[in-house]
Amino acid sequence: FYFSKLRDVEILCQMAEFREMPVVKAIIRILYASHTNVDVLGIAQSASVDVRALIGDNLDVDEDV
Predict the structure, then answer these.
(1) What is the Cα Rg of the chain in Å?
(2) CA 28, CA 54: separation in Å to the nearest integer?
(3) CA triplet 62, 10, 30: central angle to 5 degrees?
(4) Which stretch of DSSP H or E encloses residue 54?
(5) Which of 12, 44, 47, 63 is a good FRET partner for 24, with 20 to 30 A between their CA atoms?
(6) Angle at 25 between CA 9 and CA 58, to 5 degrees
(7) Which residues, in sequence order, are CB contacts of 24 under 8 Å at separation 6+?
């Protein structure tokens, strides 16, 4: 179940219209990080800051997705 969701995210991130977005680059770094990369949390936190800077702090999450 979760593998297919991650694969869908990976496919979206590889699409030309999204590929150069800073948050997409951060997602790709997280998806491809090795288990020895201890800075994955830092990458995720910086991506969160980038998203908030782009769309604001009011992030609505659809719980049904």
Answers:
(1) 13
(2) 18
(3) 90
(4) helix 40-55
(5) 63
(6) 75
(7) 13, 18
